[in-house]
UniProtKB/TrEMBL annotation:
One of its GO terms (molecular function) is UDP-glucose:hexose-1-phosphate uridylyltransferase activity. The active site is at residue 183. Keywords: Carbohydrate metabolism, Metal-binding, Nucleotidyltransferase, Transferase, Zinc. The gene is galT. GO terms for biological process: galactose metabolic process. Belongs to the galactose-1-phosphate uridylyltransferase type 1 family. It is an enzyme of class 2 (transferase). Its EC number is 2.7.7.12. This is Galactose-1-phosphate uridylyltransferase. Its cofactor is Zn(2+). Zn(2+) binds at residues 54, 57, 130, 181. Binds 1 zinc ion per subunit. The keyword Thylakoid does not apply.
Length: 349
């Protein structure tokens, strides 16, 4: 008889510190309550922003390439005369090559394999005002940002050059942002990223073994226990995962099973945008405005997994650093349990 991956209790120890296993992917986390109280000699303050002219601010549109999308609908080109709220721009410093070679097959040399890293990389500027976090955005801009996510996802699907689109946000220097003006990124790749492949494979195995969706069972279990749930209504649930890799890590899921973020209706997108905005404000209050990433995992373009996969949002506050133990062992160390993180976030509402 196979082990029930959602039997969270079986992974807990009797001591104060616990070794927890993620129920889907199997990575392990040391929950070490109290390590956040260690003495710290280094000054970890965020360096002040540069006084450079911000290329994303309204009025500086000439500092960026022509938009691929401007919202609200109907604007041909953002400018002072044509006010805008959200712009989608090509990334002029991309990690992925813009060209798609006709022979895109990997090249094998002995043990080493390589291929051209081709794809599409875009920046979503979330406001003409110089807001520095998604939590600071007006409600309209938060909603339009999520509309832009979905529209670019579906447009890139239609273009047929890529297999997967990663939607994500880096906020703050330690989260990978080079500019403080609130913005997100779109990266479309010719491959399905390994982490998404692992999620799909593990979700399919669970479905074959149990006849049910892992994600639906996960929602049911989290609601039943309640200790890690930060927010839940009839549409969405947000909780700190059982094997959270860092303090205040969050997973946001729609309550109704849906594999493809591109299929979410406008009402769900609006509710998700406003919930994420509220949750990030709670995280910033609890952790004194940390750097953070958030990302959306969704179904690859060439995959049918509607019975067992579930798109979701992950929020990752960057308040811990992977040090020698973590790199050497592949384990994560989280100094605040997800149950306590959830309680702190609920109390900050």
């Amino acid at each position: 008889m196979s082990r029930d991956p959602l039997n969270f209790e079986s992974e807990q120890s009797d001591g104060g510190n616990q070794l927890r296993r993620d129920p889907l992917l199997g990575f392990q986390v040391v929950v070490a309550e109290g390590r956040e109280n260690r003495p710290k000699q280094w000054n970890a303050s965020i360096p002040p922003a540069s006084a450079m002219r911000c290329p994303f601010c309204g009025g500086n549109e000439d500092a960026t390439p022509h938009e691929r999308l401007v919202l609200p609908e109907g604007l041909a080109r953002a400018s002072d005369e044509m006010p805008w709220e959200v712009r989608v721009l090509p990334n002029i410093y991309p990690s992925l090559a813009r060209d798609f070679p006709p022979n895109g097959q990997p090249q094998q040399q002995w043990l080493y394999q390589s291929e051209t890293a081709s794809g599409v990389q875009e920046v979503i500027v979330e406001s003409p005002q110089h807001h520095t976090s998604f939590a600071q955005l007006p409600e309209t801009n938060a909603i339009l940002t999520f509309e832009a996510y979905q529209r670019r996802l579906n447009t890139l699907r239609e273009q047929g050059q890529c297999r997967y689109v990663q939607l994500f946000k880096n906020n703050g220097p330690s989260a990978g942002a080079s500019l403080e003006h609130s913005h997100s990124q779109v990266m479309a790749t010719r491959i399905v990223p390994p982490i998404v492949q692992q999620e799909l494979a593990a979700s399919e195995v669970y479905f074959q073994q149990h006849g049910r969706s892992f994600w639906s069972d996960l929602i049911e279990r989290e609601l039943a226990e309640g200790a890690r749930v930060v927010y839940a209504d009839e549409t969405l649930i947000a909780f700190c995962p059982f094997a959270s890799r860092m303090p205040m890590e969050l997973c946001i899921l729609p309550r109704t099973p849906q594999a493809d973020f591109g299929d979410a209706n406008s009402t769900l997108l609006e509710q998700l945008a406003l919930l994420l905005r509220s949750l990030l404000a709670q995280v910033e209050k609890a952790l004194n405005f940390p750097a953070y990433n958030y990302l959306i995992h969704t179904l690859p373009f060439d995959t049918f997994a509607k019975d067992y996969y579930h798109w979701h949002v992950e929020v990752l506050p960057r308040v811990t650093v992977r040090a020698g133990f973590e790199w050497g062992t592949g384990l994560y160390v989280n100094p605040i349990s997800p149950e306590r993180s959830a309680q702190i976030l609920r109390d900050s509402m």
